[in-house]
Amino acid sequence: MILQTGTATKWILRAGLPALVAGGLVAVGASGFDPSSSSSSHADPASFGAPLQAIENVDYDGRFVLARIRFGSDLGWGGFPGRGRTPPWAHDFPRAERNLMRIVQEISYLEPGVDGGNVFDADDPELMRFPMAYLVEPGYWRPTEEEVEGLREYLLKGGFLIVDDFRGRDWINFERQMERVLPGLRFVEVDPAEPIFHTFFSVEELDFPHPYDARADPTYLVLYEDNDPQGRIMVMVNYDQDIGDYWEYSDLGRYPVGPTNEAFRLGLNYLI
Fold first, then answer.
1. Hey, how many other C-beta atoms are within 10 angstroms of the C-beta on 231?
2. Rounded mean pLDDT, 20-45
3. Which has the closest alpha carbon to 261: 205, 189, 219?
């Protein structure tokens, strides 16, 4: 598979990928992952609940790094009950990013940063250096006017936003805030025929379950630029789903290999 960029053509996939996929995406020997084991020696328990004030973004050096959107620092919360007092925007951080980038490193010629991801407020000018951003738990998202303007500018200039890890009535707040960011654009539910599901892997089904909520009915929605289904996807939404949780625990064997593979396949497709 190739990625066309203007007149330049870059080879993305490594040779031998079909065999790797047939054997299971998560079970990449060179990465040190063993999802069949519940006690991987490569697990880093200390990374769970790491102090968020210790986050140090990596300087931009041309490598692919996933940018996570931070929010809620002005709400006066100590954290989010039930998740080690981790604020909503930080769920699965940095293990989700770290494990996804290790997969990217193993099966592509992209050169990602593998130590985690960067964290930015939506109005931070540095966000413009990173083409793909990740926002989780948007039911708790109350962006300031400056953050609304910053995210709008990012998306209009070509940035791509993935929204993940929210369910049920969280949609009400998320839709309200996105109307502030991109007024007039309408969410469209997409199925496996949407080309984004065939950019790297061919994903024929989207029916793998939410990792821990059997009642959830995963739905995938997008915002197209100018509401044109033939145009660029600006925002990709995993609603009633949490692919980041699959990424986070892929090296610990918490979830079955099958749906974990599907979560990684979606991540790779979104990235490409």
1. 10
2. 37
3. 205
